[in-house]
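Have a close read of this protein, sequence plus structure tokens, and explain what the tokens say about the fold. Thanks in advance:
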Amino acid sequence: MAVPSTVKHTLLSVEMSGIPGRKRGAWRSPAVLTLCVFLFIAGLFLWLEHRAHLLGALPLLLPLLICVGMHFFMHRGHGGHSGHGAHDDHRKEGDRDGR
């Protein structure tokens, strides 16, 4: 006896939730939840064991992070690194013409 294709589709789409037609997302799988819990616990242990080192290095790293941030945000205004030579080129062309 042949099973109609609609019944096959309905049987294949039923997931563990018990609701027909509703598929469970990848974030709700046991493997992903276990990985998230493991990463949270590992991060907690890293913070607890190394916070003195991280906070002690903060005064040294903070100026570097500020410089990188300023470089990133200030280059947005004139089109990246290519804008540096544009101002100098106009001045040099004027000098060649004798003005």
About this structure: The longest helix spans residues 30-74. The helical segments are 5-13, 30-74, 84-96. Residues 11-94 form one domain.
